[in-house]
Design brief:
The complex is a heterodimer of chains A (412) and B (73). With 412 residues, chain A is α/β, with parallel strands linked by helices. Helices cover 43% and strands 14% of the residues of chain A. Chain A has three domains: 3-222, Rossmann fold (3-Layer(aba) Sandwich); 226-312, Roll (Ubiquitin-like (UB roll)), CATH 3.10.20.600; 317-404, Up-down Bundle (de novo design (two linked rop proteins)), CATH 1.20.1440. A five-stranded mixed β-sheet of chain A has the order 8-7-11-9-10, with helices on both faces. Chain A has a four-stranded parallel β-sheet with strand order 3-2-1-4, with helices on both faces. Chain A has a two-stranded antiparallel ribbon with strand order 5-6. With 73 residues, chain B is an alpha+beta fold. In chain B, the strands form two sheets. Chain B has a three-stranded antiparallel β-sheet, covered by helices on one side. Classes of the chains: A alpha/beta (412), B alpha+beta (73).
Amino acid sequence: MTMFDALTDEQETFVAPPVGVRRLLATGDPSLRTHLATFGPLPAVDGLGGVDGVTAALEEAGLAGRGGAAFPTWRKVASAAESGRAAIVVANGSEGEPMSAKDATLLHQSPHLVLDGLLLVAGVLRASEAHLVTTDGQLAPLQRAIAERADARGVRVRTTEDRFVSGEASAVANAIERGRAIPRDHVVRLSIAGIAGRPTLVLNVETLAHIAVIVRFGAAWFRSVGTADDPGTRLLTVAVDGTRRVVEAAGGTSLRRALEATGVAVESVRAVLVGGYHGAWATGEALDAPISAAGLAPFGAAPGAGILIVLSRGHCGVVRAAEIAHYLAGQSAGQCGPCANGLPEIAEVMGRLARRDRDASLPRQLRELGGLVIGRGACHHPDGTTRMVMSALEAFEHDVHAHARGLCQEVA
Amino acid sequence: MPGRTLHIDWTRCDARGSCIELLPELLRRDNWGYPLARTGSEFAVPAHLDDAAEDAVNLCPVLALRFTAPVRG
């Protein structure tokens, strides 16, 4: 018996599931009252068939993590249950990506859905601690939400630094254990041995909100929007000209349609950096690719945390990529030699390329430096930075050649 | 006996270089003096280099090197 079967009858007596693609953002206001009117009460942990019942439903739903790595959520929950030691569950709303706003939007609009997901996972794992980590701006709405319900009083809320690498899972675990939000070295998954050696399940807040609706309405409902390989909805942040707009879209929505949904005309777009600052640049036909792992893979991109950064026509991709590389070099925690030394050098060479230094060897230098930093850090900051730079060399190939001759095609 | 795997803890590694001297077959110095293996942070140690690898683990002044799970097969 799946959890969906177990829940169907009971659920229909409460409230109908949201229709369409407005699911996580279906409520009009963040109050508990509206939350309950929209989604109905959270099913009791006892009725869900334990860890096996919940992981079966999550597997059937095909939910993948929404924090960036897209790891199958059911597998992560199952591995945290395996050791038999009391787990620690962490809702990660750190959102270190400066262009991302979807986690903050979710915490402001639907804090109870996130709390539901956290309490449910903690309950089913019989976890000893439930944490929620976020940044200052989200503290007030969260505290208001927690004050509205008795079951969330045990949730430990803490704010973290507004820094790029502070949202990385091991940095979040480190912040809780040692008060420092910097990544740490680990040879086994956090879900097996994390904080104080205990199984530590770090789940993005959007992932938890999806869990909260899946346990209510079932895997089949979850899959009723989206595509077979990217079921359900995902929150996207479209960053364009200094503004950030958050939209909930069906899985597998094309980049083009996602841009249009936020009022961006595709004709005005030169390129989109897909997946945030660690992402890859999409141009031309790639703009019609579905925002899913399989749809973006041919273009070397991935949905990541659902961030789409628009480069408008008339702006130079090489210059923008150099600015981002410079920012990312400054965001290294400085713990790992190859990252602390290599990223500033990458940013420096990228800067020379952007300034149109007449040196044909710059792209080759970037490839060599990239090869020296990839895979050589406690976290993926060097890998992601290199991915973005290498992708820029490819996507803006003509501009790169022009720059090496002292010219720029995009900017007169 | 299947070979073991060495893991570099980059948060500890300080480019002292003793591992590079003890395991020249597996490591070379990168642009900044840090050990460069063929594969990022973890690399397989062939059985005939196991003693040297053991020395590298024990002689690293900042304890940045350790064995992880044995390589399968």
